[in-house]
Design goal:
Strand content: under 5%
Helix content: 55-70%
CATH class of the largest domain: Mainly Alpha
Number of helices: 22
CATH architecture of the largest domain: Up-down Bundle
Distance between the termini: 24 Å
């Protein structure tokens, strides 16, 4: 009986059929990256806001004040006693006399006395010039509640983490396509509920669920693409990352054109319902079917692939070699039971963690140093396109291991140099920082490919999902690490990033080279790499 790779070679390793499936599934990268980075625009600064004094609303309605007039009457008396006061997080500890006139703001406080006016912290009584522009103004995530915006991103990454475990396991047990379609449905439904959440608690719950299902769509589509092409064509695992970058590039344009956060949320969520149409055009992974002892179904799909590719399978292909490895429900112990698997798993987990922490840290650092949010975000996304092109050009010539190691080391060196460059040479500081972003993007994209090539078919989806869960842990830690260390010294996070990246670059040199090697089918195949 022929092996799966022999049958795939005759049916076409990257023909018309695989190209169609690749293009369709790659669209998932656009929606997933939009979800991944959406907090930048969902949680953008709401513009001017201030704390309303009790009684101001009634008086404002009676007097017919505009919001600007109410703000002046609220903030100016406050600033008379404290010039540094902004009126955003504190207010006069008074109640306005609603029987007073409408023209003299100094006469409005009913218990005004000489000296500095008494102040009180603001609690849920804010007024925004743009009340529905972001979740910040929608749910009052300002002043003492500002940390809750960081929490919303941490909750999303926690959802990614849960999705890696739950849906990664489910895809190995129940199939790639059923879990992919279920995840697409979940992302769409949860996204709609997030957009119309009546309070922040409901927002967090369904943002977590949207993150969980979103991770299911991305990881499962990636595994399907790598399993239906030949060993010489697995570079598609890198090319699919370009669609992730495309989503990053498109997001600021969407946010610029849509003025409300609900509109942005719907724009990045609703397209997932279109992916449900893939039920009729994208088949189950034949590699997965073989591991579940479903050789006839796998052969039927292979004949269909050959037909669409303009080829014909030999009549003697009545069966395909099925792995003799006993199929069981995968667990973490399967990933560390044998020496090679244990080494690969631990190094890949660290690589995922490091890549995500540095990548997200460098993206969020743009918000600290200021600038045009839309333009800076677009440029930071555009920088990632050369990363994928560099990988496509080099990875099949020099292999996976060397670019993987060098990209981490260069990223570490770039972060270290950026930290100590003087501020009076902004062009040089920006250039070196961009080199660091480019390098860590290369590392982030290569780890996807290497991870899928170092696990057997029976454990591939679970292994990729579990190792990439460390990416989500890095995403949870990144905002807290960045902002806490930057409060001590703005460049301190870059020092930490440089150390983590350099260590990762050295560790990945211990991984086996997988250039031109067939995907391993069993644990024995992995041990022989």
């Amino acid at each position: 009986m022929p092996s799966f790779d022999e049958v795939l070679k005759e049916a076409g390793e990257f023909g018309r059929f695989q190209k169609r499936v690749f293009f369709l599934l790659s669209q998932t990268g656009i929606t997933f990256s939009s979800l991944f980075a959406s907090v930048v625009f969902l949680g953008r600064a709401p513009g001017n806001f201030w704390c309303r004094i009790p009684g101001a609303a009634d008086l404002g309605d009676r007097c017919g004040w505009t919001l600007e007039e109410e703000r002046n009457f609220t903030v100016l008396p406050l600033q008379l006693g404290n010039e540094s006061a902004t009126g955003e997080c504190e207010r006069l500890d008074v109640t306005w006399d609603t029987s007073a006139g409408c023209t003299s703001p100094l006469a409005l406080p009913g218990n005004h006395s000489t000296g500095s006016p008494p102040l009180a912290p603001c609690h849920g009584n804010w007024v925004y010039e743009q009340p529905h522009s972001s979740i910040v103004s929608e749910y009052d995530l300002v002043c003492g509640n500002a940390w809750m915006l960081d929490l919303s991103q941490a909750i999303l990454n926690l959802g990614f983490l849960a999705g890696a475990f739950i849906l990664g396991y489910a895809a190995d047990r129940y199939g790639r396509i059923p879990i992919y379609l279920l995840s697409c449905l979940g992302v769409g439904i949860c996204g709609i509920i997030v957009a119309f959440s009546p309070n922040f608690t409901v927002f967090l719950i369904f943002r977590f669920l949207q993150g969980m299902f979103g991770k299911g769509t991305w990881m499962t589509c990636y595994v399907i693409v790598t399993e239906i092409v030949g060993s010489d064509q697995r570079i598609v695992g890198i090319v699919i990352q370009m669609f992730f970058t495309l989503g990053i590039i498109m997001l600021p344009g969407i946010a610029y054109l849509i003025p409300t956060w609900q509109g942005i949320q719907l724009a990045i969520s609703l397209p997932n319902f279109l992916f449900l149409l893939y039920y009729w055009v994208v088949p189950e992974s034949p590699r997965w079917l073989l591991t579940r002892k479903k050789g006839e179904k796998a052969l039927k799909i292979m004949r269909n692939i050959a037909k669409h590719n303009g080829k014909f399978l030999s009549p003697h292909y009545s069966e395909i070699t099925i792995s003799n490895e006993e199929v069981s429900n995968p667990s973490f112990l399967d990933l560390v039971r044998t020496p090679q698997m244990r080494r690969n798993t631990l190094i890949l987990m660290y690589a995922w963690f490091t890549s995500a922490l540095i990548y997200q840290g460098l993206v969020m650092r743009l918000g600290i140093i200021g600038g045009n949010l839309y333009l800076d975000f677009f440029i930071s996304g555009a920088v990632e396109l050369p990363a994928a092109l560099l990988i496509v050009v080099t990875i099949d010539r020099v292999g996976r291991r060397l670019p993987f190691a060098m990209s981490n080391i260069v990223a570490g060196i770039a972060c270290l140099i950026t930290a100590f460059l003087p501020e009076d040479i902004p062009w040089l500081k920006t250039t070196v920082a961009t080199l660091g972003r480019l390098s860590i993007t290369i590392a982030f994209e290569v780890v996807y490919l290497v991870n899928s090539e170092l696990y057997p078919t029976t454990l591939r989806n679970f292994g990729v999902s579990l190792c990439s869960s460390l990416c989500d842990l890095g995403g949870i830690i990144a905002p807290f690490l960045l902002f806490r260390l930057a409060a001590i010294w703005l460049e301190l996070p870059l020092i930490i990033f440089s150390i983590l990246a350099a260590v990762c670059g050295l560790l990945v040199l211990l991984l086996p080279e997988t250039k031109g090697i067939s995907l391993p089918e069993t644990l024995e195949d992995v041990e022989q790499l």
